[in-house]
Design brief:
Elements: H1 11-32, E1 37-39, E2 45-48, E3 53-55, E4 58-60, E5 69-73, E6 80-85, E7 88-90, E8 102-104, E9 116-118, E10 127-135, E11 138-149, E12 156-163, E13 166-176, E14 181-186, E15 191-192, E16 196-201, E17 207-215, E18 222-229, E19 234-241, H2 252-277, H3 280-306, H4 309-312, E20 326-327, E21 341-343, E22 349-352, E23 371-373, E24 382-389, E25 394-400, E26 417-423, E27 426-429, E28 435-437, E29 445-451, E30 456-461, E31 466-471, E32 481-487, E33 492-495
Parallel strand pairs: 2-11, 20-24
Antiparallel strand pairs: 1-4, 3-9, 5-6, 5-10, 6-7, 8-9, 10-11, 12-13, 13-17, 14-15, 14-18, 16-17, 18-19, 21-22, 22-33, 23-32, 24-29, 24-33, 25-26, 25-32, 26-27, 27-28, 29-30, 30-31
Length: 497
């Protein structure tokens, strides 16, 4: 290009045409260097995992891009997401992760719209994208940012174990992106402190989370687990209520003994001092009287032994015309026993341990309630057997043979169980809700009388023949009926031979 100079007076007329030509050439080059611009959205684009997303891009001013080269790439020019050239899509340089997942939307390509659609969005798709357009020797590009998000599964709340005087509850969920926030809340919406939290990336690149909390009786028994996607500002929630009987309780016998033993020791000491002070004559009389009382008690026991009540007893409510009750020789079925229950070799007694045994998880075995069924099943006639209860808490009764063995079931006739329970020194019938039994004392030896023909079961105090509770006629239905026992930690039950 010539360099034009300006001269005064007469030189102006000779250089004016050259000056005009210079400005024309200058503007032509300026127009050629600014043929178009490539425009993106100017803000991050959000996509949901598993769905499709369109990355918007167009040339400005609006013009046909049919004969242009369009290249979408990631961090490097050779990291090709999608390429359009010579009027058609080119897949030779496309990255393997995007095979079969991209499409250049050509509906608006005549107007310069070169937006890219990506199918089946993955977490690995997150990041920056370059929209590159070239026409001849001129090219421009725009930079876009793609954000990925995913809402995971509904929180799964489970009751794990007893811990620190309460119950450990765990909340689990999977399929979140980015990393979610987990909150425990009480019934009023107040946030509760969690015990532990673990988050990890699964094989699909999505986050899995597990969060635990300790709750105690009468405190936050209604609680919710909230899992929030902070990027989408959306959350999922699950709520659970923990019933009172799930919480660990102090053994009532231990509490009673801690009070009784000191009193007993003081009384024993005072009695000993008193006996040392009384005269030998009075001591002899006391011994003689104790001997006579023991003799009378022996006679009473002998008389009771001679009475064959098993052949003559008639369960309350059946009437004197009913046939005698048959004595049932009941044994316990180890195939149905919960892993924490230990049965004797003869199948006549059961106790509960703190740890589970390594037993085969058969379909017949209880895995939630510490229950066991009898080997014998009854479909007709009247049958009776006795159960001796030790210390602690326990329940005796009958159950439908098809009673649910896996998971939590209702310990009531609605769940196929008819029984009475000793809990904390109190006695109650396992109805729904439970029926308190105002007994003067909690019986330790219970006779269970089952009348299959009338659909009735009766519980009797075997010590004084006093009735305890009767499920009305017609309430025990559903095919074969088997003996049923439930045992709390540290308790034991025994079937009379």
């Amino acid at each position: 290009m010539k360099v034009l100079s300006f001269c005064p007076s007469s030189a102006v007329s000779t250089s004016l045409p050259g000056l005009i030509i210079f400005f024309i050439i200058y503007h032509i080059h300026k127009l050629e260097s600014a043929q178009f611009r490539v425009m993106g959205p100017g803000h991050p684009v959000t996509a949901i995992v598993g769905e499709a997303i369109v990355l918007p891009c167009h040339v400005s001013p609006r013009m046909s891009a049919v004969n242009m080269e369009v290249r979408w790439f990631r961090s490097e020019f050779t990291s090709v997401v999608h390429q359009y050239h010579e009027g058609k899509d080119q897949y030779g340089e496309q990255m393997p992760d995007y095979h079969g997942r991209t499409e250049l939307l050509k509906a608006g390509i005549m107007d310069g719209n070169i937006s890219l659609q990506i199918l089946n969005i993955r977490p690995s798709d997150e990041g920056q994208y370059n929209c590159f357009v070239q026409d001849g020797s001129f090219y421009e590009e725009a930079l876009l940012e793609l954000k990925i998000a995913a809402l995971g599964s509904n929180p799964l709340i489970s009751v794990e174990s007893h811990q620190d005087g309460g119950i450990r509850v765990v909340c689990q969920s999977a399929g979140w992106y980015p990393e979610p926030k987990v909150l425990w809340k009480d019934r009023s919406g107040q946030e509760l402190p969690s015990l532990s939290e673990a988050k990890s990336l699964g094989d699909s690149g999505l986050f899995e989370t597990e969060n635990s909390i300790i709750i105690k009786e009468h405190s936050n028994q209604n609680l919710s687990c909230w899992i929030r996607n902070t990027f989408l500002n959306q959350e999922k929630e699950s709520t659970v209520y923990i019933a009172d009987f799930f919480f660990p309780r102090a053994n009532p016998w231990i509490v009673a003994l801690s009070v009784i033993l000191p009193v007993f020791f003081v009384c024993f000491l005072g009695l000993t001092l008193y006996l040392f002070k009384i005269k030998g004559k009075h001591l002899g009389e006391i011994r003689k009287r104790d001997t006579e009382i023991g003799k009378h008690l022996g006679e009473i026991r002998k008389r009771d032994t001679e009475i064959d009540w098993r052949r003559n007893i008639v369960c309350p409510g059946l009437g004197s015309s009913a046939p005698p009750v048959q004595e049932a020789n009941v044994t316990l079925n180890p195939e149905t026993a919960h892993p924490e229950l230990v049965l004797s070799e003869d199948g006549k007694s059961v106790r509960r341990e703190d740890t589970q045994q390594d037993l085969t998880d058969s379909p017949d075995r209880f895995d939630f309630w510490a229950c066991v069924l009898g080997c014998e099943g009854f479909t007709s006639g009247s049958h009776c057997w006795e159960v001796v209860g030790g210390k602690g808490c326990w329940a005796v009764g009958v159950a439908r043979e098809s009673v649910r063995r896996k998971g939590c079931t209702s310990l009531s006739p609605e769940g196929g169980i008819w029984a009475v329970e000793r809990w904390g020194g109190q006695f109650q019938a396992l109805t729904d809700p439970v029926t308190p039994l105002p007994l003067s004392r909690a019986p330790s030896r219970i006779r269970v009388c089952l009348d299959c023909d009338r659909g009735q079961v009766t519980f009797i105090d075997a010590g004084d023949e006093a009735p305890i509770f009767t499920f009305p006629p017609g309430s025990v239905r559903g095919g074969r009926i088997r003996p049923w026992l439930w045992v709390w930690w540290g308790s034991q039950l025994r079937l009379c031979p």
